[in-house]
Amino acid sequence: MSSGEFRDSFVDPPAAKKRKLPSPTPSLTQPPEQQPPQPQQPPHSSSPATDCPAPSSAGAAAAVVVMATSNNNGSAPASTVENNTAPAGEIDEGLYSRQLYVLGHDAMRRMARSDVLISGLGGLGVEVAKNVILGGVKSVTLHDTALCTVGDLSSQFYLTADDVAAGRNRAEASCRQLSELNHYVPTTAYTGELTEEFLQRFRVVVLTLAAPAEQRRIAEITHRHNIALIVADTRGLFAQVFCDFGVDFTVYDQNGANPGSAMVASITNDVESIVTCTDETRHGFEDGDYVTFTEVEGMTELNGCAPMKIKVLGPYTFSIGDTTKLSPYVRGGIVTQVKMSKQMSFKPLAEAENAPEFIMTDFAKWDHPANTQIAFTVLGRYQEQHGRLPRPWNTADAAEFVEMCRKRAKELAIDELNESMLTKFAQVCAGDLCPMNGAIGGITAQEVMKACTGKFTPITQYLCYDAIECLPEADLTEEECAPIGSRYDGQIAVFGRKFQDVLGQLKYFIVGAGAIGCELLKNFAMIGVASKEDGEIIVTDMDLIEKSNLNRQFLFRPHDVQQPKSRVAAQAVKRMNGDIKVTSHENRVGPETERFYDDTFFNRLDGVANALDNIDARIYMDRRCVYYRKPLLESGTLGTLGNIQVVVPFLTESYSSSQDPPEKSIPICTLKNFPNAIEHTLQWARDTFEGIFKQVAENAAQYITDPTFIERTLKLPGVQPLETLESVKKALIDDRPKSMEDCVKWARFHFEEQYSNQIRQLLFNFPPDQMSSTGHPFWSGPKRLPEAITFDAENALHLDYVLATANLKAEVYGIPQQRNRDIIRKMAVAIEVPKFTPRSGVKIAVTDSALQAEENGGGEELDQDRISRLQNELASLGKPDFTITPLEFEKDDDNNLHMDFIVAASNLRAANYKIPPADRHKSKLIAGKIMPAIATTTSLVAGCVSLELYKLAQGFNTLERFKNGFLNLALPFFTFSEPIQAKKSTYYDKEWTLWDRFEVKGELTLQEFLDYFEREHKLKITMLSQGVCMLYAFFITKQKQQERLNLPMSEVVRKVSKKNIEPHVRALVFEICCNDEAGEDVEVPYVRYVLP
């Protein structure tokens, strides 16, 4: 295969801040709650898309301004507008859905009114611009006066060799591709001087690659005009971010967390009143939080009160101050946290650089931030003095640089310097690394969003970061790191030419081509992974591109929707660096694809990078990497949260060694009868959807198509056979609709049953004045007193439910849908609903344990007569002449009525129990189990992961070289630390970890296998298993033992598992339990049994 060849293969396709701004727009000076909504609109479709012309010279007197509107890689602008346009005054939730769950609508609207200037379109500048444009600001202006050079190709992924050859301006050369990222954000290239008048057009100014004098000049202007300024720079393995958001900046939401709430059990009438919450869950409040109350009976003065500052006394109690003048508390109440704004004052750059404040990122490097800040200041002086950067790994330049740092330290009255670190800074500061730019670009872009919105806490005021541990043990030579006119010169300046060859020969498997996958592919491509003949990147993802992906998966464009992610992503990074060899697959990783991802596949890999969005797949790949002893780069994001974990064979623990606790489940009785939060009603609605539109339909469909269905059903445990057959009978006989009128009738009856009849029966069993066995009101605490709903066809919510339910029922049975609301209303009004009377003797469980006992005691209903009658009734139907199609819940299709049903069903149930309803946006988040996501976190995490790749590629094998990370861009909080060492265990005097195993070559009989361990390892095997199959155990019958002992191990596996061993399987994994010579149980590694 020739260098740079692209391969495509697959198997089994499957609110603005309160400050005076120079903008004439009045709303920018108003607090967010007073601002009228304004539409975020794309450029007019009638505006022609224009390319950015190259200037005749970099020093042209007149500024060149070019507006670029996306042409979607050549597709017509009209179709793009059709794909992306949101109605006037609204945010395009289809595009921004995942980001909206991070920022919220108010912050998004504030951002959509913010103009941003980004100066310096090198590797860092393009990363910042990419993330800010994806975020959805009002406009972005790209400024640069420099022309493209070969050195820019090290990390500027939107520049090409043609741009270098043509001498194009960096901003103009990047403009078109950046504008294609988001059609709602007009993107402008500007090559003139940054005058005071020009700067006043912007809400936020970002400077990269700016000279110190220019930084100070612009910083003085922006501070005077209260324009937010962010100065960001990366130099080799060092980076610095500085923020100045003015003297009176308002943060409306410091951490982005949802306000906590709890149910009140009691409130005392005291000078220091104590509020006690119910013991269902801890309140989760902290000292200094503010709260308000609702639904309090007795002490009603608290309802809707102004926010009250609290003092936490315990996990279930807190104090709210003096309540002696309030009415006595009776019962009930909900306490809710109130988000309070915070004012922040920032020092100007000229003052801050002499008295810097730092955000710590790694407490093992406690002295690095101050030294890094000194280094960046001195670097500016060095450039002014010499007109260049220190030469890579030049001893004399480094010595002079350190001496200048000593002088700067005296100016700051700093006694001790980390001269070793400062020497390394001088040696590598000429470098330009894509992973570092990606990480810092994510941080910087998030600070831009904070400045635009007041959402989340800004950096105060310096963030200094380094990854100096990436450097090799021995110093490199100046000759090894000198530029050679290569696109990788920026990286060669740090690591040398030989290491570039190592990267080029790497073979890496990237699992997932979503948000993190796109960023990893870009980073791997830019640093030259698989750019040599023997190298290869394999990326797999079975998903197709959706519109909601475009907001953060930056390799995709609107015309790529419904195309395979892996294929489009591979083609996109191939355009960034034509040297790389990348192969795309469209496979899910799992046991079903092990015939493709087999021993041969894994054994040739140098490592795996996970870019997955679910724990099961992560655990599976982690176990595969442990088995094949391959390094694993693991990462994940959740909104502004991110984590990075590096798994190194024979050194660290694996991903599966420690896991987060499982999510707390909602008790079934709470869902069925006693919901008290919107999360409960949404889960109930989702369960209802799965029950009536999927599970029942699946049972009926299987009955029609599978002759063994009855036989299999009768073998089910408990009452399941009866319930299943009854559901089939209802689906095929009792509830089978033959027309849309039948579907509406069924939906209307279902409404009555769910929201009226069941509630009336519940209140019949437990009247409003019911007392519990402890003498307290039954309807108190988490049990909210419900009320039945009377159907009203003029009530929009009631009609929403009937319309969605009836049409989904019609879809299941293949009946043409009817979505005209007036027609559905007329049908619903004409339906006569049977009168319901609550019945005595109906049991309603109050606790899950009672419900379980009730279900376990229901065996008497399983009389054969009833089952026989059901079978006979179904048999009398004959072969149905219609089909039934189960519905798979899909949250992101706004036309399939799935979310319409969920929202209506949940909010009706919320109305039953007087729970505040949820809008469609919140309902989709909870019911659809959506993971909030934003491009900034993804960029940061993928950048950090790629820095760990540098270390793996160099063969580092000590813990202190590697960094796991946990971060939260909202706070901001960053912590990097050494990975946890693999746990060591022993048997006899032998030490082992999860990376060790017994290697046994077959074929052996079971007896020979047992004898081998007793003879060679002095271990007596007491139990032997393979997967879920028990092959041998001391307690199995003698007959079974004798049957198996003389069989080959592979035959024992076939006999017990009742499955053949697949041809691609070259070894079997056995788990063994053993006793030592003293008869004591000992923990030992697993066995890899190699087949002959």
UniProtKB/TrEMBL annotation:
GO terms for biological process: protein sumoylation. Transmembrane segments: none annotated. Pathway: Protein modification; protein ubiquitination. GO terms for molecular function: ATP binding; SUMO activating enzyme activity; ubiquitin activating enzyme activity. It holds the Pfam family E1_4HB. CDD domains: Ube1_repeat1, Ube1_repeat2. Residues 1-10 have a biased composition (Basic and acidic residues). Residues 962-1087 form the Ubiquitin-activating enzyme E1 C-terminal domain. Gene3D superfamilies: NAD(P)-binding Rossmann-like Domain, Ubiquitin-activating enzyme E1, FCCH domain, Ubiquitin-activating enzyme E1, inactive adenylation domain, subdomain 1, Ubiquitin-activating enzyme E1, inactive adenylation domain, subdomain 2, Ubiquitin-activating enzyme E1, SCCH domain, Ubiquitin-activating enzyme E1, UFD domain. One of its GO terms (cellular component) is SUMO activating enzyme complex. The keyword Glycoprotein does not apply. Its EC number is 6.2.1.45. Residues 33-42 have a biased composition (Pro residues). InterPro entries: E1_4HB (IPR032420), E1_FCCH (IPR032418), E1_FCCH_sf (IPR042302), ThiF/MoeB/HesA (IPR045886), ThiF_NAD_FAD-bd (IPR000594), Ub-activating_enz_E1_C (IPR018965), Ub-E1_IAD_1 (IPR042449), UBA_E1_C_sf (IPR038252). Keywords: ATP-binding, Ligase, Nucleotide-binding, Ubl conjugation pathway. It catalyses: ATP + ubiquitin + [E1 ubiquitin-activating enzyme]-L-cysteine = AMP + diphosphate + S-ubiquitinyl-[E1 ubiquitin-activating enzyme]-L-cysteine. Residues 1-58 are annotated as: Disordered. Residues 43-58 have a biased composition (Low complexity). The keyword Isomerase does not apply. The active site is at C669. Belongs to the ubiquitin-activating E1 family. This is E1 ubiquitin-activating enzyme. It comes from Anopheles farauti.
